[in-house]
Backbone:
C-alpha cells in the first residue's frame, strides 16, 4: 500500500480546491514536528473521508523521509487518535507498521491497540489487539488491560476465554506486588459482559467464579474494588443465555442474595434474566415465586422506572407453575 501511494505524483496532494493549502509543506526533508502536526490538524477539520485519505497519503510521503523521528510519528498518530472507527485504526496501524520496520516501540504498539479498542469493531477488534500484544517485549498492566478490553468488545469465538487470560495476568501481577495491575470495576464488568454473550455450558460457572474471586479478595481486604450492578447483571444474563445448563438456580439465588446484602436493587433486566434461568430448572419453582414477589415489591417501592413487572415475567412464572407440583399453584397462578 505504501509503495502504491508513494508512486503517485505529488501534485495530486495539492490539486484540491476544498482542502487547505499544502504549498509550505512541500519540502519533506525540512519539515519539522510542529508543521507536521499542524498540517494534519488542518486536514482533520474536514469531515469528508476522501479529504482525510488524501491527507494520509501526503503524510506517508513526509514520514518516508523522516521515519527516524519518533516525535513526528507520535504527533501524527495522536492527531489520528482524536477520531474513532475502523478506518482510524487501520491508519494508525499502517503508521505503526511503517515505523516499526526500523525500531520496535512498545508505546507505539500500545497506541495501535488503543486505536482498535476505540474502533468498537466487534468482528476483528480482539484478534487485531492480540496481534499487536504479541509483539510487545515486556507487557505491563496497560497492555493487558487494552487486550482485555479489545477481546471483551468483539464477538469472535473464544473471546471470553482470551479476555479471561489477560484478566488472570492482571491478578497475577497484583499478587507479585504491582499495584497498577489491580483490575478495576470497569475491567471486570467488561469481562463479565463478554461472558454473558457466550453460549457454552461452562460459561455461567466461569463468570460466577470471576465474581467470587472479587468477593474473596474484598473479604480478605486485598482490594477495595466492589462489584457493581453491571457485574451482577452480566452474570445473570450469562445464566439466562445458557439456561439449559443444570444447577443454575444455586448461582442465580446466590447472586440475588449477595445483591440484597450489599443493598443493590436488581433492575428489570436482572429480574428477567433470573426468572428465565430459574424457570428452565424444573425443581426451582419455589425460588421462581419468591423472585416474582421481589419483583412486585421492587416495582411498588423502588424508584420509578427502575423495576417493572412486565408481562413476559408473569408468563415465565405461569409457565413454571403449570409444569410443577407447587402447592396451591392454582391460587398462586390466579394471583399472578
Residues:
Amino acid at each position: 500500500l505504501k509503495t502504491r501511494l508513494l508512486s503517485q505524483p505529488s501534485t495530486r496532494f495539492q490539486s484540491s480546491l476544498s482542502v487547505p493549502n499544502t504549498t509550505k509543506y512541500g519540502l519533506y526533508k525540512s519539515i519539522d514536528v510542529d508543521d507536521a502536526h499542524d498540517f494534519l490538524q488542518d486536514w482533520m477539520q474536514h469531515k469528508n473521508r476522501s479529504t482525510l485519505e488524501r491527507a494520509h497519503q501526503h503524510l506517508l510521503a513526509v514520514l518516508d523521509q523522516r521515519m527516524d523521528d519518533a516525535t513526528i510519528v507520535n504527533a501524527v498518530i495522536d492527531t489520528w487518535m482524536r477520531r474513532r472507527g475502523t478506518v482510524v485504526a487501520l491508519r494508525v496501524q499502517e503508521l505503526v507498521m511503517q515505523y516499526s520496520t526500523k525500531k520496535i516501540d512498545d508505546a507505539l504498539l500500545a497506541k495501535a491497540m488503543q486505536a482498535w479498542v476505540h474502533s468498537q469493531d466487534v468482528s476483528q477488534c480482539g484478534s487485531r489487539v492480540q496481534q499487536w500484544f504479541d509483539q510487545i517485549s515486556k507487557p505491563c498492566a496497560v497492555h493487558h488491560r487494552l487486550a482485555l478490553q479489545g477481546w471483551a468488545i468483539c464477538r469472535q469465538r473464544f473471546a471470553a476465554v482470551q479476555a479471561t487470560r489477560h484478566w488472570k495476568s492482571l491478578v497475577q501481577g497484583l499478587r507479585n506486588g504491582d499495584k497498577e495491575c489491580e483490575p478495576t470495576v470497569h475491567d471486570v464488568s467488561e469481562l463479565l459482559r463478554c461472558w454473558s454473550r457466550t453460549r457454552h455450558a461452562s460459561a455461567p460457572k466461569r463468570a460466577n467464579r470471576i465474581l467470587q474471586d472479587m468477593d474473596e479478595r474484598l473479604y480478605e481486604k486485598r482490594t477495595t474494588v466492589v462489584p457493581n450492578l453491571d457485574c451482577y447483571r452480566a452474570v445473570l444474563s450469562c445464566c439466562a443465555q445458557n439456561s439449559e445448563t443444570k444447577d443454575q438456580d444455586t448461582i442465580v439465588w446466590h447472586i440475588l442474595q449477595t445483591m440484597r446484602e450489599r443493598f443493590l436493587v436488581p433492575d428489570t433486566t436482572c429480574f428477567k434474566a433470573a426468572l428465565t434461568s430459574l424457570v428452565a430448572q424444573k425443581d426451582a419453582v419455589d425460588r421462581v415465586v419468591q423472585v416474582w414477589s421481589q419483583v412486585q415489591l421492587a416495582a411498588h417501592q423502588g424508584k420509578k422506572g427502575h423495576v417493572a413487572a412486565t408481562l413476559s415475567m408473569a408468563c415465565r412464572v405461569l409457565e413454571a407453575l403449570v409444569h410443577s407440583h407447587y402447592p396451591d399453584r392454582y391460587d398462586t397462578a390466579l394471583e399472578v
Observations:
- The two ends are 65 Å apart (CA to CA).
- Residues 104 and 136 are 8 Å apart (CA to CA).
- The chain has 17 helices and no strands.
